[in-house]
Design brief:
By secondary structure, the chain is of the alpha+beta class. The chain has one domain. About 20% of the residues lie in helices and about 30% in strands. The protein contains one helix and five strands; from the N terminus they run E-E-E-E-E-H. It has a five-stranded antiparallel sheet, with helices on one face. A hairpin with a 3-residue loop joins strand 2 and strand 3.
Length: about 110
């Protein structure tokens, strides 16, 4: 299993932690569109899914959404293996922290 820590967020859905730190091609039965959602203050949401579902040639989409504006994510990242996914989740967390600092500055 892959362990994740989202500072300041509340995990509302998590199938992502079921993944093993091995090649995604060996665990395609776990690769689906709705894998992780984490809610943060300020109307921020971290969303992770695999597209296309169950297809080893796809990729993880990591989006940071603000105020449910799915058409204009604050951050949109892609990863193709679990190691890269962990790195991109750190980038997303940094972006969330930056957004939270902006809203708390007022």
């Amino acid at each position: 299993m892959i362990a994740f820590n989202f500072s300041g967020g509340t995990v509302t859905h998590d199938d992502l932690s079921l993944l093993q730190d091995i090649a995604v091609a060996k665990q395609t039965d776990l690769l689906k569109e709705d894998m992780l959602q984490v809610e943060f203050a300020g109307g921020l949401l971290l969303d992770v899914g695999w597209y296309p579902e169950f297809d080893a040639s796809g990729g993880f989409r990591i989006n940071v959404i603000k105020n449910f504006d799915w058409d204009r994510p604050v951050v949109a990242l892609t990863a193709y293996e679990t190691t890269e996914l962990v790195e991109q989740l750190n980038v997303a967390q940094d972006a969330i922290n930056g957004e939270l600092r902006k809203t708390s500055a007022f």
